[in-house]
Design a protein that fits this description.
- With 448 residues, the protein is an alpha+beta fold.
- It has two domains: 246 residues, BirA Bifunctional Protein, domain 2 (2-Layer Sandwich); 99 residues, Rossmann fold.
- Helices cover 37% and strands 19% of the residues.
- The protein has 16 helices and 16 strands.
- The strands form three sheets. Strands 1-5-6-11-10-9-7-8 form an eight-stranded mixed beta sheet, sandwiched between helices. The chain has a five-stranded mixed beta sheet with strand order 13-12-14-15-16, with helices on both faces. The chain has a three-stranded antiparallel beta sheet with strand order 2-4-3.
- The protein is elongated.
- The structure holds adenosine monophosphate.
- The site of adenosine monophosphate (AMP) has 17 residues, from strand 6, strand 10, strand 11 and helix 11.
């Protein structure tokens, strides 16, 4: 058997591939990126891109030494003669905050809204919707602690899923308070679980020392049974006055904008640098335990990375999970369609000429050509199979007369067009049918 791709990775394939599903359809994948670009750039977010490998120290501090990601799931990058200290990024925030600090982005108008998309890497147990290389759309806002920024971030996430056509998405909103509130909560949890240490999983025994809040996040069934039995009070009961006012303000904005959400006291983010607002988006299509996306405020992160205090907040969607949710709702992304023009030579000596004609037509639209001469009958069949709108035939009459014999495959109408008028002929068609966006030379541009 030929070499296979690594477990937990996916290929994104062209339209028409056998056994295509939405989460492996490359055009659907791009559609999600384009939708995110449209929604986020209209809100003033600028596209950034950071390396997919970073210093191990950045990942450890940025994601947290007590997390499964850092303890069990890091892909380490080695190359000849290096110090072995690079990690394939497991998420986007740490790299973006590093970049903000390193490149002096503080000088840009604040709050600074940034977004990116790209591959992330975690050596997880592979399941549906849980991959080792997956892709995120990320949105981050730096430089403001205003609850309006939090509410806008949540609302933008909802805008992205709505723009994709998804309807079955639920927002679960919580707050994890300020550091002093979390200290009080951790003290409470330490006492509560401390009386039942023997029933905790090994991981949670460890968490009891380092970070009791993370016990609530445990994947162990035994831990979860204990949590249910003890009737643990939620973090929300421990919010101080300021964090409570902030949480209330976020909700007031969301209510004013008719963004629906459920308060979910179980949302916990145990790391030191998280502050206040935290939320997740859920969808039945990706399973109850897995989120479609999540976000939170991380005012302490820049300091954790060795920089000054820079308040920040951000969220990430998993693109594959968005596609699974879309598939579950029966949504699809139209295949990218065929060329406007397909140019075919009727004799081998004119193949080069056919190529030239197609290349000139590419100034106005998508145009392709046949690499070998064929008879008119198979030229029409081939053009139809490729989804072309027009087919142009080039035989000796056409070459001598400097014209093209063009057939519109939808209407069946045939016409003779002077070669030098081809682009205005195609341009007229695009204008009349209003299909310039579908056939025009799509030059993808970030933030376009
Ligand atoms: P996190 O950075 O863990 O908050 O994850 C943010 C989002 O990324 C999640 O809600 C998922 O949609 C997606 N995600 C995280 N881990 C994976 C994974 N292993 N496979 C696929 N998607 C993932």
């Amino acid at each position: 058997m030929a070499i296979q791709r690594p477990k937990g990775t996916q290929d994104h394939l062209p339209d028409g591939s056998p056994k295509l599903s939405l989460d492996t359809q490359a055009s659907a994948f791009q559609d999600v990126q384009d939708t995110a670009r449209r929604v986020l750039s209209r809100a003033g977010a600028q596209f950034v891109s950071t390396p997919i490998f970073e210093e191990a120290e950045l990942v450890k501090r940025g994601v947290g030494g007590s997390t499964d990601i850092v303890r069990k799931e890091m892909f380490t990058v080695y190359y000849f003669g290096d110090h072995g200290g690079f990690i394939l990024r497991p998420e986007g925030t740490a790299g973006i905050v590093r970049s903000y600090l390193q490149n002096g982005l503080k000088q840009l108008p604040s709050p600074l809204k940034l977004w990116t998309h790209g591959p992330m890497f975690r050596a997880e147990n592979v399941q549906k919707g849980r991959l080792r290389q997956f892709h995120q759309v990320d949105y981050e806002v730096l430089g403001s602690a205003d609850p309006l920024v939090d509410a806008e971030a949540i609302s933008l996430m909802v805008d992205v899923v709505s723009a994709l056509g998804l309807t079955g998405v639920r927002v679960k909103l919580g707050s994890i308070g300020d550091p002093a509130d979390r200290d009080a909560y951790n003290a409470y949890l330490r006492e509560l679980f401390g009386a039942h240490v023997e029933r905790l999983s090994d991981d949670s025994k460890d968490r009891l020392e380092r970070n009791p809040m993370r016990i609530l996040d445990s994947k162990s069934a035994g831990d979860q049974a204990l949590i249910a039995e003890l009737g643990v009070n939620p973090m929300l009961d421990f919010l101080g006055d300021e964090a409570r006012a902030h949480f209330q303000a976020v909700q007031t904005y969301l209510n004013a904008w008719n963004v629906t959400y459920d308060i979910d006291p179980s949302i916990v983010r145990g790391l030191d640098y998280y502050r206040r607002t935290a939320w997740e988006l859920h969808h039945e299509g990706v399973g109850a335990k897995s989120a479609l996306g999540g976000g939170g405020r991380y005012d302490g992160l820049a300091e954790q990375l060795g920089g000054p205090l820079v308040p920040g907040i951000g969220w990430a969607f998993g693109i594959e999970r968005l596609l699974l949710a879309m598939e579950a709702e029966g949504l699809d992304v139209p295949a990218s369609g065929g060329p406007l023009l397909y140019v075919v030579a009727l004799d081998d000596q004119f193949v080069g000429h056919a190529a030239t004609v197609a290349m000139v037509a590419r100034q106005v639209a998508r145009a392709e050509f046949a690499y070998r001469a064929v008879k008119p009958g198979s030229a029409f069949r081939d053009a139809g199979r490729r989804g072309a709108q027009f087919v142009a035939l080039i035989g000796s009459d056409e070459v001598q007369g400097n014209v093209l014999s063009i057939k519109n495959l939808t209407t069946g109408v045939q016409s003779t067009v002077p070669t030098r008028d081809l682009n205005s002929f195609l341009g007229d068609h695009l204008e009349q049918t209003g299909t310039a966006a579908a056939h025009g030379p799509a030059v993808p541009q970030e933030n376009a």
